Amino acid sequence: MDAPAEPYPYASAEQVDPLVRRVLAHNPSAFTYTGTQSYIVGSGAEVAVIDPGPDEAEHIEALLATIGDARLVAICCTHTHRDHSPAAAPLSARTGAPIIGCAPLTMDDDGPRADAAFDASYRADRVLADGETVVGDGWTLVAVATPGHTSNHICLALPESGVLFTGDHVMGWSTSVVSPPDGDMTDYMASLQKLHDREDRIYFPAHGPAIEKPRQLVRGMIGHRRSREKQILKQIGEGHTRIAQMVPRMYKGVDERLWPAAGRSVLAHLIDLDRRGFVTPVGEEWLPAA
């Protein structure tokens, strides 16, 4: 999906639901779309911020202005890539609010990244397990564990509005990056199915537009990944057994600068196919399982 025409509404609050306002961070890129969208939940005396975004003064001031006289009772992060969580610490220092949400995770990837690296500074005052809640004035946030994009990724449901804040797990403008070793295709597919089985009304992702037909989109995403599996198995069957051979054939028409990132996705699929008994690695080759 092409990005909408500028100017984007940076450093200003948009009311996107009676209980939700959105503030867009000024960090657009090929992997963040127009930027990271932070959400302020609550319309009463207590509010929460979801995915506070990058540590940029303009964005933090915009969040504080949106919070206004309300008390910030929780700063929630869906995961710890650097376009999502670094503003949590300075926002906590300014307000005294606890950082609540995903677990800390810092690691080095073993290949070219297609998204932001991990935030080594992230510290959580409280880690939310699947189904645990954060409660404020007129609202409830419920953690939905969704590993795959990262092992520590969570979504947050707002049952009062039927909203699910999906972070990077489901986005309307692009599929999520799944890059080993932390990105895991087996977990990602299970997490997609988990969301498909829910009945959320609308998704608010960290990047891109709201998703108004969530189950339809998730069903399509599952189908897309299964189609990629079939492509990979077809490539192997034709004797293209190395990732470097598969990518140019599978991603014709895609900017070659994105091929290294595409290779990470292919690797994630191959690891999953190995676990399921379809392929086996032999050196740098991937062969049909015996």
UniProtKB/TrEMBL annotation:
InterPro entries: LACTB2_WH (IPR041516), Metallo-B-lactamas (IPR001279), RibonucZ/Hydroxyglut_hydro (IPR036866), Sec-metab_biosynth-thioest (IPR050662), WH-like_DNA-bd_sf (IPR036388)
One GO MF term attached to the UniProt entry: hydrolase activity
A Pfam family that the UniProt record links to this protein: WHD_BLACT
Domain Metallo-beta-lactamase: 35-207
Keyword Hydrolase: yes
Tree of life domain: Bacteria
Signal peptide: none
Keyword terms, alphabetized: Hydrolase
Statement: the UniProt record of this protein carries the keyword Hydrolase: yes
Protein's name according to its UniProt entry: Glyoxylase-like metal-dependent hydrolase (Beta-lactamase superfamily II)
Species for this entry: Novosphingobium fluoreni
